[in-house]
Amino acid sequence: MALTPEPLNGRRIVVTGVVGGLIGLAVSLFLESVVAHTPATVSSYAQFWFRVMLGAFGSLAGLAIETVRQLQATNPDPSYRHSTKGRNRRRDRR
Question: How many separate domains does the chain show?
Answer without folding.
Answer: 1
